[in-house]
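In response to reviewer comment 3 from the previous cycle, which asked for concrete evidence that the modeling workflow produces usable outputs, we include below a single protein chain processed end to end. The sequence was submitted unchanged, and the resulting structure tokens are shown without manual editing.
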Amino acid sequence: MPKAASVEELLKSGAHFGHLTRRWNPKMKEFIFMQRNGIHIIDLKKSHTYLQEALEEVTKLARAGKTILFVGTKKQAQEIIKTEAIRCGMPFVTHRWLGGMLTNFSTVRKSISRMEEIDKMKTDGTVDELTKKEGLMLDREKEKLENTLGGIANMTRLPGAIFVVDTIKEHIAINEAVKLNIPIIGMVDTNSDPDIPDYIIPANDDSARTIQLVTALIADAIIEGNAEREAMREEELMEQAAVDAKKSYESEDDVKEEVIEDAAKSGKRRKRRRKISESDDKPDTDTDVKGEEEVKAEPKEETKKTEEPKAEETAAAVEEKPEETKPAATAKDEKASDEEESSDKK
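The workflow returned the following structure tokens.
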């Protein structure tokens, strides 16, 4: 949580100085510590407490994504308001407050669109085609619009709250915010009405140092609230991603379970079919077995048949061999007998 400035820091910035005693608002009596030299002195302890409440509310609004409009048209507050508003990325009004800037926001948006149109004409080169007088008129119109509406050019809708430096000087902005029920965070001096703003910061609204201190704390609170919102958004995204991943895992598990159940059911059906085929087709299986045995036996018979002709051929070859040798033997015998006969004749 943002911490408010200490009493010493407020004292150094001159936040305790009020207005003249003759210009005070009786409703600010509870916030006045004493008077000295005709000037009221503000109780800085109460200022510290109320500043802490205002900072907590600003952080809460920024965490919720609300826009806070900075308003300060005082000469000593203009540059400070502009710098701090730009630093925290919020809209601001530092020149004259246009009547209806909140209550007639649609018309103000038309003026902002006109300013954007002039910028586009300059970038496109359309201004170069105009005469010198027309170009000067456009430049003056653009400068006037930038002074009054330049700070709220990016504000597309009504703000969630407004921060006002001087509630008396910015009474038009205060009245419009009250009509639209927009929360008001304002610095109130001893001459201001503390009942109008929703969150008050009793302090010297004429001191540049005090305005710088309070406005810087408001800007820091806004930056802190935005950072917390981004962190919360990241956590939500992480949680959403975890939930999505969990759902995807659960869906995958469900699909796997369905596949397993389907496989189990299909397996049971197949087993039942096998049992039926075994009970009904027993004779067929026997015949099939016999047929397989006959098929296995047929090749053996064929081998036997092939072996028998081979045996017959070998036997025939053996029988033929003596027949071929017999004539050879008889020729020898005839020669021997012829020789014997010749020898006998001799």
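The CA atoms of residues 131 and 137 lie 10 Å apart. We consider this sufficient to address the reviewer's concern, and the full set will be provided in the supplementary archive.
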